[in-house]
Amino acid sequence: MPYTKYPTQKEYREIHESSPMDGFHEAVNFLSESGIIRGYLPPKHLLSIRSGKPFVLITITAKTAKIGGDMIVGIQAGCRYDGDNSRSGGTQASRALKFNWHYSCGESMSLVLNRQVPNARKLVLGKSGTWVRGPTYEIGKPALKRLIGSIGKSLTAKDERRKFAQISKILGGVAIKTFPKVSENSDFELNVADALKSDLSHVVGKRVPDQVEVRTYQYQRDSKVAAYALKHSNGTCGDCGNHAPFKSSKTGLPYLEVHHIKMLKDGGSDTTDNVVALCPNCHRKRHYG
């Protein structure tokens, strides 16, 4: 099957990071913000998306596009509609444009294709059919089967195939677990960085902070892998070499935190050769240092 030249995943991310996003970039956003993808839905999106149930988005380009038209560019599963929200995360350029976002999904369930799949509308409509609603269209089971097969054949990288295998489980009816909880704003660190540039001489704050329900996405980690890292650390931090600061009341072992050397959101594996037990200070340094 011939493939039209289209930006690779790396090139796509470089476009996001180096230049302000226009409406197209926003509508097909695959850029992770601390493990979460936030995307824009055009005005004509299906009302069923607002039902609160998780949905899958298969993104295709316009058939009339001069370059890369009528192509499947990516797939996102476990998406949920979150209402109309102002974008505060992402790059400085995207924040400056004050785009809104409507849905979110976990980065682990979001795949932008290195090799885009051509003839997207034919795969959706079959041998006959009419595109009755745009720019979103509800896909039936026969079309979904065709799309899954075509996307699967286009995958060349190991990480792509692994991620698509997880997404395929959801497409096959396996539910994704989400964990609603009361939490601080996930963009808090970015907001602090912006606040440091402002006048803070008259800041008071709120005596009774507001609470919001935030939907988060968690990886299903193997508890035995974490236990292995803790047991084999002998109570010593893998970075600074100091002994753990106290004993854990839950495990009875010296308290250390298990860190993935290549983080899960970046495609790292949950295996014993990709984890290290760290003291709280070194763990924070790995993430924020």
Short note summarizing the structure:
Keywords: Endonuclease, Hydrolase, Nuclease. The chain has 289 residues and is of the alpha+beta class. The chain has helices at 9-18, 23-27, 92-96, 120-125, 141-154, 158-171, 188-195, 223-233, 280-288; strands spanning 32-33, 36-39, 55-60, 72-86, 100-106, 110-117, 179-182, 213-216, 257-260, 275-278.
Biggest sheet statistics: 6 strands, antiparallel
Overall number of domains = 2
Strand content: 15-25%
The parts where pLDDT drops under 50 for at least 5 residues are 1-7, 15-25, 176-185
Order of helices and strands: HHEEEEHEEHHHEHEHEEH
- The general outline is globular
**Fraction in helix:** 25-40%
What integer value in Å does the Rg equal?
22 Å
Number of strand segments? 10
Structural class: alpha+beta
Counted by DSSP, the helix tally is 9
Query: How far apart are the first and last residues' alpha carbons, in Å?
Result: 46 Å
Tell me, rounded to a whole number, the average pLDDT: 78
What would you note in describing this structure?
- This is Restriction endonuclease.
- Keywords: Endonuclease, Hydrolase, Nuclease.
- This protein has 289 residues and is an alpha+beta fold.
- The chain folds into two domains: 9-179, no CATH class; 219-289, Orthogonal Bundle (DNA Binding (I), subunit A), CATH 1.10.30.
- 28% of the residues lie in helices and 20% in strands.
- The chain has nine helices and ten strands.
- It has helices spanning 9-18, 23-27, 92-96, 120-125, 141-154, 158-171, 188-195, 223-233, 280-288, and strands at 32-33, 36-39, 55-60, 72-86, 100-106, 110-117, 179-182, 213-216, 257-260, 275-278.
- The strands form three sheets. Strands 1, 2, 3, 4, 5 and 6 form a six-stranded antiparallel beta sheet that branches. Strands 7-8 form a two-stranded antiparallel ribbon. Strands 9-10 form a two-stranded antiparallel ribbon.
- Strand 1 (32-33) and strand 2 (36-39) form a beta hairpin.
- It is globular, with a radius of gyration of 22 Å.
- It starts with 8 loop residues before the first helix and ends with a helix.
- The model is unreliable at 1-7, 15-25 and 176-185 (pLDDT under 50).
